[in-house]
Amino acid sequence: MSEPNRTTSVDIPPPVAMLQMIAGFWVSRAIYIAAKLGIADLLKDGAKNSEALAQATGLHAPSLYRVLRALASVGVFAEDEQGRFALTPIAATLRTDVPGSLRAFAIAELGEDHYPAWGEVLHSVKTGEIAFDHLFGMDVWQYRAQHPEDGKIFDEAMASFSSVVNATVVASYDFSSIGKIVDVGGGDGSLIASILRANPGMKGVLFDLPHVIAGARRRIEAEGLAERCEVVGGDAFVSVPSGGDAYLLKWIIHDWDDERSVALLKSCHRAMAKNGKLLVVEAIIPSDDTPSFHKFMDLNMLVMTGGRERTEAEYQTLLEAAGFRLVGIIPTQSEMRVIEGIRA
Ligand SMILES: C[S@@+](CC[C@H](N)C(=O)[O-])C[C@H]1O[C@@H](n2cnc3c(N)ncnc32)[C@H](O)[C@@H]1O
């Protein structure tokens, strides 16, 4: 049988394709530098050379030049004949002030906690254990509680993604029959705020770990939703607020292994109103051998949290194990799906 040949759509020799992949983390770390130092923000009003950028960021100009030149060679920044660097559309995604900015995500995913944890990926593959916990001696949630700066940048990364994804979820799913919705692990509150704004008759509860809810409370108050949305801190493995008509879990289940996921889903099952709904918002990975960003996000989960990305069949099994029946998978314009369950 011949080898499948789908390295890229452009016909490049396999060793070149492999070298590009091997060097992938060099590119990632160079992007980390640009993101961390806010280079894209410094270029938003026009091109600058590495001396000017180094002066603004307190860096070594000749070394910064080499980083920017390398990044320009892969389309992040463009270098002109005078050695000045300008934003490209790809570089502009690292600006802080653009909708869906990827700056916080780049810092969070390539920085001080994720990067060393990924260095231990072999440990995860040898043992099935969480590389992060092995390295830091605690899980990511405890780590972020103890390192508020890292926690803040992670929350910003989630919020920035959410600013794009939330609108697609609100536009794709009909929330109108729900009287009270509980957002479990609701993070900064941006999703529940979008849902409540679009559904003026609805009430909400935002639930997350105690150290996370202060920021969420500020957002709910600033958006004038405090009357309609309670903000509650706690541990979802112990219990979640009761009496909701719908329990929403966005980007929660993929953080956990099957056993812990079932425990979380059971918490919702116990708490929900009689005809309540479960709404799990996640990407679904294809069950066949097609390309998917989330097949690598799955590795990120292996390294960071012990969670996983799942196929449709795997979500079905998970929901059933927690006493739910999967009744629908609603696509959105993003890669996220709303997986709808009811009590079996
Ligand atoms: C990947 S983030 C997703 C946040 C948000 N749902 C979103 O989509 O932007 C996971 C969230 O789960 C929360 N979390 C983790 N462990 C939790 C627990 N035991 N109980 C409640 N929330 C928890 C975290 O604080 C974090 O806000």
List the helices and strands and how they pair.
Layout: H1 14-22, H2 24-36, H3 39-42, E1 48-49, H4 50-57, H5 61-73, E2 78-79, E3 84-86, H6 89-92, H7 103-110, H8 114-119, H9 121-127, H10 131-136, H11 140-146, H12 148-172, E4 180-184, H13 190-198, E5 203-208, H14 213-222, E6 229-233, E7 246-250, H15 258-271, E8 277-283, H16 293-304, H17 312-321, E9 324-331, E10 336-343
Parallel strand pairs: 4-5, 4-7, 5-6, 7-8
Antiparallel strand pairs: 1-3, 2-3, 8-10, 9-10
Bound molecules: S-adenosylmethionine.
S-adenosylmethionine binds at residues 141, 158, 162, 185-187, 208-209, 212, 235-237, 250-252, 255.
Largest sheet: 7 strands, mixed
Strand content: 5-15%
Determine the N-to-C terminus distance.
45 Å
Radius of gyration: 22 Å
Side by side, the strands of the main sheet go: 6-5-4-7-8-10-9
Mean pLDDT over the residues: 94
Assembly classification: single chain
Structural class: alpha/beta
Which ions, cofactors or small ligands are bound in this entry? S-adenosylmethionine
Number of helices: 17
Q: Report the strand count.
A: 10
Q: How would the global form be characterised?
A: globular
Q: Considering DSSP H and I runs of 4 or more, what fraction of the residues is helical?
A: 40-55%
Helix and strand run: HHHEHHEEHHHHHHHEHEHEEHEHHEE
Poorly predicted tracts of residues? 1-5
